[in-house]
Amino acid sequence: MASDTEISDFLKSVEKKAFKRAYYHVGDEEGALDIVQDSMIKLCTHYSDKPAPELPLLFQRILSNTVLDWFRRRKTRNALFSNLDDFDHRDDLGDFDLLEVTTGAADAPASQSAEQWLGRVQTLEHIEKAIMSLPARQREAFLLRYWEELDVAETAAVMGCSEGSVKTHCSRAIQSLSKTLAQQGMKP
């Protein structure tokens, strides 16, 4: 059984990656924050009796299911109510700062020029847009494998599919990202 301190430390260690993963799926900062908060609450409420080594996979599965629930609720709400503000939600990302989530001030070298910094920001924005344009299952497999660094078996368990499907989704995601980024002049 994980102690309160272990659960708290675990949640602190995954909060930024979980937010970014949720944001990549829903494209809405407030929605992503709600998803992460709901996932953390579910983990604490229903799985606090689990051993600490089981928490990472449990949390990833909970996060995936909470994202799906968010889309289901949104689909149901949109079917019942028509809200004109929903039609342009992808264009207005507010004051979301990509670098605030992906890096910290300690990560930036002191000798980095403004030109290098701007190039880095633009590269990250291109990569983020390319990831967000992937189909949902490919994006989920890609993020779990390469962002969360889960192995194929763990990713399959979180996604509820076979290991072969994970490999296929990841392969297609990488091909799509490579093609998209190459068209924008970025090469590995």
Structure notes:
This protein is mainly alpha-helical and 188 residues long. It has eight helices and no strands. Helix 1 (4-26) packs across helix 3 (55-80). The longest helix is centred in the middle third of the chain and has 26 residues, at 55-80. Residues 80-93 and 101-107 have low confidence and may be disordered.
- Please bin the fraction of helical residues: over 70%
Give the count of helical stretches. 8
Low-confidence stretches: 80-93, 101-107
Identify the overall geometry.
globular
Name of the level-1 CATH class of the largest domain: Mainly Alpha
Query: Secondary-structure element order, as H and E?
Result: HHHHHHHH
Q: Mean pLDDT score, rounded?
A: 82
- Structural class, by secondary structure, is mainly alpha
CATH architecture of the largest domain: Orthogonal Bundle
> Roughly how many Å apart are the termini?
43 Å
Count of folded domains: 2
The portion of residues forming beta strands comes to: under 5%
CATH fold descriptor of the largest domain: Rna Polymerase Sigma Factor, Chain: A
By oligomeric state, this entry counts as: single chain
The main pleated sheet reads as:
none
Give me the Rg, rounded: 18 Å
Total count of strands: 0
